[in-house]
Amino acid sequence: MRYRLYQYVIAINHFRDELFICENKINGTASEVHVVEALIKSRDVPVYPFSAMGEENSNMTDDDYKEMVKRESPIVTAVMFIR
Q: Is residue 5 a part of any domain in this protein?
């Protein structure tokens, strides 16, 4: 099993329009949470043009997708609780 510890974890609560930055700081290292905050607050984000080409299509019907979700849902829930 592999475990990873991230220096910064960003949690977003869409219901309350809140954003939390959690920093896992190692002794002897300087905090750079202000850099993360500055990146989040900056509005300098590139915008790429997008337009759909042709009609939407899928290789799966809506009913097939719903059946797949019903079938796999207990497995995904179990994996989430095991980790």
A: yes
If one counts every other C-beta atom within 10 angstroms of the C-beta of residue 32, the result is 13
In terms of residue numbers, what domain contains 34?
A: 1-43
* Residues sharing a CB contact under 8 Å with residue 9, sequence separation 6 or more, in sequence order: 21, 22, 24
What average pLDDT does the segment 30-45 reach? Answer: 88
Within-domain flag for 67: no
How many domains, the chain? 1
65 SS3 class: helix
- Per the domain annotation, does 36 fall within a domain? yes
What per-residue confidence (pLDDT) applies to 79? 47
Average pLDDT, the chain: 82
Distance between CA atoms of residues 4 and 2, nearest Å: 7
Q: Which amino acid does the sequence have at 53? A: M
Is 1 contained in some domain?
yes
